[in-house]
Write a structure and sequence with these properties.
single chain, 62 residues, mainly alpha, two-stranded parallel ribbon
Amino acid sequence: MLEDVSYSPAKSKLMEQAESVGATAINGLGMMLWQGALAFELWTGQEMPVSYIKEQLFADRL
């Protein structure tokens, strides 16, 4: 699996090249979501509404 820590575009040139040779490639959005959730909790003492943020983050990518 190849991970390109890229948020935009959702599929980078590196990811397209990896997929063209049969590799599985994912971008960095999932990692950003969960790092953000942890930071949110550390700073506010509250859980981040992950489901809502995930919907917003991936809305234009579905």
